[in-house]
Design a protein that fits this description.
Number of helices: 11
Radius of gyration: 34 Å
Strand content: 25-35%
Number of domains: 3
CATH architecture of the largest domain: 3-Layer(aba) Sandwich
CATH topology of the largest domain: Rossmann fold
CATH superfamily of the largest domain: von Willebrand factor, type A domain
Distance between the termini: 68 Å
CATH class of the largest domain: Alpha Beta
Structural class: alpha/beta
Largest sheet: 6 strands, mixed
Helix content: 25-40%
């Protein structure tokens, strides 16, 4: 594609139009006017093909996959190949989505006259998590006389993967990454003797009668005691709700310590909590799994460990978006009952803010609570609190009505908590700046008490 350059438009406006205006006012011969117009148009026409010849041999090679985190600065780099070194200057652009911000979307490059390869780099900032693909790069070069611009779309393949930002959770992660200082030392105090069978040994004075292996004693004809050890590897699953309730917008942070949290929706905060918990489980040598559901179960990743397994979890979550449907808890309970044969810790990240959703969750949780250890976390709101909890006076009527609404929602939450506790399920409502720490703390509490 060939388009007029700014230089051509400038010459037409500054030279061409005034020149022919003067010739017309001076009543110059028609032959002179036609000759001037002919040579001017001929010069412009002869320069047009060179604009295409300049950009035709150019090629672009860009990095295939670029990884970054939300809120971070990153670069997309590549090489512009100028085979005959005939092009002197080009303008290069990529169709960046709105989620990738840059101060210079179009690069103006003066190409090296001594080398065919020229380095190109865009500096960007990721505003949203997700997967962004760009399949075309647009290039523009100038003709020999600079009167025309040749434009061409070059094929390329650039994939930008923007993951959730976990840098703000350093205070939660830091204590988990202290290595054991010596053999036999643990990161936390262990309660009890453990429940995983290790071996048999002869009875020793002081052994409890509950530890005696009576069948082995009868067979060997002398007392035999069972020895147990702390469970080394357990299964932990995060059951993540991606329905319409997870799309609830989060209020802006006002505290300086938490103002950097970039999560805008409830689902995004759940994703951050799930990834941090995956790192914590890896550090505790547990196997981590993931279940994603809304009106149906979308993905079940069996529990596993290692860096590749964590990458699979992360690649599943970073593109996850909420769906405008109501959650189907019965369906996810049935899938858990059919798929998870081994006793596991299930951590539900969902929103039970609507009474009928809470009732559905309470009615179906008994299907899995008998076999598995179940924890439930939801994001609470500062407005949901007892009427006189803050201890200050109530001013206008609007504030009173708001407090009454908060009292009613708080009563519903307390009732849901009581019903779940009767079924052996612990429900926690955390503020958005505390949910990651609360999820990890509850997981470590279960580990410490050996509830699995």
């Amino acid at each position: 594609m060939v388009v007029p350059s700014q230089r051509l438009l400038f010459h037409v406006a500054v030279i061409g139009i005034p020149l022919f205006t003067v010739l017309g006012l001076a009543e110059a011969p028609a032959a002179v006017v036609l000759a001037a117009a002919f040579f001017g148009l001929l010069l412009v026409a002869l320069d047009a093909p060179s604009a295409l010849r300049v950009v035709q041999p150019l090629r672009v090679e860009l990095t295939d996959i670029v990884r970054s985190s939300k809120g971070r600065d990153f670069e997309i780099s590549g090489v512009l190949i100028n085979p005959r070194m005939a092009c002197r200057e080009v303008r290069l652009g990529l169709p960046f989505p709105a989620a990738l911000a840059t101060d210079q979307p179009i690069l103006t490059l003066k190409l090296n006259a001594q080398s065919e390869r020229n380095r190109i780099t865009w500096k960007l900032k990721a505003l949203e998590r997700g997967n962004f693909r760009m399949k075309q790069c647009f290039i523009e070069g100038t003709s020999w006389l600079g009167l025309w611009n040749g434009r061409r779309a070059l094929p390329c393949s650039v994939e930008v993967r923007v993951y959730p930002d976990l840098s703000r959770e350093k205070n939660v992660l830091a204590p988990l990454f202290f290595r054991r200082g010596a053999m036999g030392m643990h990161q936390m105090r262990q309660l009890g003797k453990g429940r995983e069978f290790e071996q048999l040994r002869a009875y020793a004075p002081g052994d409890g009668y509950g530890d005696i292996y009576w069948k082995g004693t009868a067979k060997r004809r002398f007392p035999v005691t069972k020895m147990f050890q702390i469970e080394r590897s357990q299964e932990v699953y995060v059951v993540l709700d991606a329905s319409r309730r997870s799309a609830r917008k989060l209020e802006a942070m006002t505290d300086e310590a938490t103002a950097g949290i970039l999560a805008k929706t409830q689902l995004e905060r759940f994703i951050q909590a799930a990834l941090v918990l995956a790192l914590a489980a890896e550090q505790q040598t547990d196997r981590f799994g993931l279940i994603v559901f809304s009106d149906q179960v979308h993905r079940i990743i069996p529990a596993g460990g290692g860096r590749s397994h964590y990458d699979t979890i992360r690649d599943t979550l970073y593109t996850l978006e909420p769906k405008v449907v109501s959650p189907d808890y019965e369906d996810v309970f049935v899938h858990i009952g059919n798929r998870l044969r081994q006793r596991a810790l299930l951590i539900f990240l969902t929103d039970l803010g609507e009474p009928w959703l809470a009732e559905s969750f309470v009615d179906g949780i008994s299907l899995i609570a008998r076999k598995h250890v179940v924890l439930t976390h939801m994001l609470g709101q500062k407005e949901i609190a007892p009427l006189f909890a803050k201890g200050d006076s109530i001013g206008e009527d609007d504030e009173l009505y708001g407090r009454l609404a908060g009292q009613m929602l708080w009563n519903d939450f307390q009732e849901t908590t009581r019903l779940l506790k009767q079924r052996g399920v612990h429900l926690t409502a955390s503020l958005q700046e505390q949910i990651v720490a609360d999820v990890v703390s509850e997981y470590l509490r279960v580990k410490k008490r050996q509830l699995l």
